[in-house]
Structure formats: C-alpha cells, structure tokens
Amino acid sequence: MKNVIIGTAGHIDHGKSALVEALTGTHPDRLEEEKRRGITIDLGFAFLESGGVRLGFVDVPGHERFVRNMLAGAAGIDLVLLVIAADESIKPQTREHFEICRLLGISRGIIALTKADLVDEETLELVRLEVEEFVRGSFLDGAPILPVSARTGVGIEALRASLLAAANVTAGRDDSRHCRLPVDRAFAVKGFGTVVTGTLVSGKVKAGDELELFPAGRPVRVRGVQSAGHDVEQACAGQRTALNLAGVELADVRRGVALTSPGRFHPTRQIDARIQLLGTARPLKNRALVHFHQGTAETVAEVVTLEGAAIPPGESGLAQLRLREPALVLAGDRFILRQFSPVTTIGGGVVLDGLAPRHRANDAAALSLLRTLEAGNREDSLAALAAAEPRGLGLAEVVARTAWSEAEIRASAEALERAGRLKIVSREPWVLCSAENFAACTARMLAALDAFHRTNPLVAGIPKEELRARAARHLRAEIFPAALEELVSRGEAEVQADTVRRAGRKIVLTAEEQRARELLERAFETAGLTAPRLEELVSRLPVDPQRARKLLQLLLREGILVKVSEDLVFHRAAIVRLRELLAEYKKRQGERISVASFKELAGVSRKYAIPLLEFLDREQATRRAGDERVIL
Prior knowledge:
The chain is of the alpha+beta class. Helices cover 35% and strands 29% of the residues.
C-alpha cells in the first residue's frame, strides 16, 4: 500500500482539526487542554485509507506560540493541506505556515476554504481570488482551491477525492535506504515500556531490528511496530510509525531525537548549507544567532556566512551553521531558521554537507566544494569530497557525509577510478583517495627515498615504517601499501623484506671505502670465533667511524658477517666451521653437549660460548635441555 503524509497548515481557528475529523472520522486533538480550549497545541494524527492509498494526516497548531510544534509536524510531509477560513481569508500564520512549507521544499498541495457555510457566494469568490494571488508563482500555483464546511459536510467528498488523486501522483518515499525516524512523540505504555512515534522518512523497520538513537549514539532494539493504530510486521518509508523500544528509558527519549540504522551516521554540530532568506526578514549577518529546526529537532545555531558579511533579504547564500547541541542532520535535509529574538521565521535552506569541517568566511576551497555538492552530480561530488580529504575516505565516512547508499558510492567510485579521477586503495576495508592526493603521496615517497639514499649511500634502503612516517604519516593506513605497490608496479621502487629502495639502485664504494671493507672482512675472518672488539677495529680503518659502521652493516646485510648478539659479530666462515665441529662431535660423542664441552670444542671462553649457544638455539642447530644442549 502506498503511504502519503498530509500536513495541515494555516492560521489558528481556521478549522484544521475539524476538517481532518470530517475527512477521516478521527479528531486529531489528543490533549485535555486542547479539547478544553478548542485549539491545537501539539501535533495530532489521523488516517484515511482508500483505493490502495493510506493518507496519514499530521495536524499542526496554528497559534504563533506553537509554531515550533508546527515545524516538528512539518518534517516528512509529502502534501500540504493549506487551510484558509472563508470568513477571515489570509492571516499572519497562514503566511508563516505557507513560507515554511515552501522553504521545506514541499512541492504539492491542496487549498481548502473552510467555513464556506458562513459566507455568501460573492465573499467566497473574493477569498478565492485573494488566495490565487497569494500562491501565484509558488508550488501551490494552480493547486485546487476547494470550498468546504466541516459542519455541514459540503465539499468534503470533493476534497477527499482531490487529496487521493494528488497522493496517487506523489512520489513515494525510498524504503531502500537506511532506516531513519525523527521522533515527534515519546511516552510510556504500562506493560510495554517506551514508545516513540514519527514519520519514517526512509528505509524500513520491523520487530527485532537493532537501531541507533541519536544524538547519543545509543543502541536500542525494536520490540514492536504499529502504523495507523495497528500492529504491523514492518513499517516502510512514508508511514506514520510507532515503535516500542527496548534498551532505553522514557527519560532518555524526547522530541527531536532520531532513530536510524546502526553504525551509519554521526551526530553533528557543524553543517554547510544554502540558506534562503525571506524577503520580509532582516539581513542575516555573519555570526548571527538563530533558532535552527530540522525534522523534529530544534537548537540554536551560529551562522557563519561564507559569501560576504551578510545574506540580504530575499536572497540566498552559502553558510556554515554551528549548532549549540549535536543533532542528526544529513546532506539533502531541509531546515527552517527563525530569528533569535523576537522569534519569527526568517528563512530556511538545504544541507550540503552534514559533517563539515570548520571554514573561514570566503574560503575559496570550501566554496568550490559546496558548489560542486550543490550541483548534485554524484560522481563530481564524490571526487570533490575525496580531493578535500588528503588523508583518504572510508566507506562509512562517505555514507555519513552524503547519506548515499553503499551501492551508490561504490558504483560512483568505480566509474571515477575508470576515468582516472579516483583511486580505490583498499576494498576491505573500502577506502578511496583522489587521484591527485594519491599521486602526491607517491611523489613524496620517491622524494623521501632519494633523500634517504643521498644521506645514507652505504645503506641498501629505508625501512618501510620510516618511509611511511616520512611520506604518509597523516594518511589512512591503507594508502601507504597501495602507493608502495604502485611504485613497485611502475618500476620506480623495490621492496626486499622490510626495506624499500629505488629500483636498480646499487651501493657503489669509493676506493677508500672498498679498502676499509676488505680490511673489515679480513679482520673478522682471521679472528674466527674470537670476535674482534668493534670499537678498536673501527678506529684502525682508513674511513671515519660513521662510514665504518655503515660498512659493517653492509657486510651484515650481505651475510658475510653474522650478528650473534648485540655485541658479538662473527665471520660467516667461522659459523659454518662451528656447525661442522658440532656435527663431528655428534658423530663421535652423541647428540648432547655441555657448556664446558662446547667451550673446549669451539676453543672459546664462556663470554663467547653462551651467546654462541643461544644463537645456535635460535637457528635451530641446537636445543637447550637443562644445562646441556641437544645437537639437532
């Protein structure tokens, strides 16, 4: 069944609630005070089903003191039913409600001239003409204007038919996206616990689902689902929905919180948006405080104008809104702004970036990004977001920032990668980087390699972690290995174990260094298993001590020398000879050898014997067994 939400709008006492009751048989006023005073104070709800369409009516208060409640009800409506009393015509709240609907981007509606039984035909016609003039050029231009009377029933059937016809051609909500329910009511039911209601603006929800409560980020579980007053297996986007929640107390839930699919979104205090100011408003100056209304949420925000010092009346401008309290606000959301004091509606707008970084006024890079996002091309927007994030973007970040589905993001990224504008550096986890930022990373890595080789001509290469710290320290961890793989595939770098070097690079020694290298190797070869003292040996070489130590490292990397412990280095020939001695001992004396026997066999003191045995244990040539070793 198709679900369409109809919101009433209009001045106080113009008959909105009575009209909803005439259409649906249900009076939407639920509070005792509302019934006693005969006015709507808070939101009321009623339903009408016909021809495979379910209409959910949200009846909002018309009194100026309750406009904030009206704004909570206006969230998520698909059609507006603008109610104008024939005996009073257009009044202040008629105008304010109409502007709110226009600013919220509502594109379709019907106008009801209520209390038609209280005026003559001539007056009714004059009111009709006045209303036509009032809505000319707006989304209600050409909308049906129907005289009705809730008291006599005149025109009710025609209005009902008109509403159903408009509902049939109204686009349905997208239930393929993540679940999102802005809460407009919360109460406790004895025996059930906490219940919340709202209009399900996207996705689906069923009993047993795990959801996340924002802005706290608290996990909750759905125990039961109702829509139109009936238990349902599943509620879909566009339905008025009541959820019985487990895992949360009523004190933790209020109007303005939202329920969403878990792990998808983040609360925000900073959004970038296009603001449209009403012609009747004052100029909206930089750093002005306003009341911010989005969905059912309300908070105070500071406006940072990004295009000049102020937004003029009747004009629009890009701005950053810094919220006093965190809220769940997504790209594409519409919002309303009301003046801080006195509190009147001054404008509204659309969110372009729901998790915006802080900007300065006239920030050229920020303005360029926002204009790209505003243009609405998904691939250009994704490319711009990636370019603005040098550290790279994960899939969850893109979802939270754009409100797109994972499938939409992946498809756009694949197309951008084919076009050479983007690099998907990892698919598990899924991470992307702009082509420019990826190229900049590989360029920094090559520069770091060249600098390392210039400074360390006798070292084969730079450790991977050091290269990452030099060239990719502030990037997402997935970018560095992808960039290194790219350099290797291009033949510009080589990786050996944990070391990276420029491709084809070889160590070239000077004559002096070559002579020192030969002296080092000969000294260790001659010493056998009596390792020479390194400091003394280095001091006798024909090169400075720093280069001598690098030559020593070179011999170690080449395997000519073997490091047994932190202080002991031997020639590999001595280690090979030691293994041969052990093999001969095993044949003659058996597989077990004591430390004393090992000292005698190797011709070394205990100072050398213990480190050599521990080295042989690590090399699995021997295995310790108590005070002895087993020769393997």
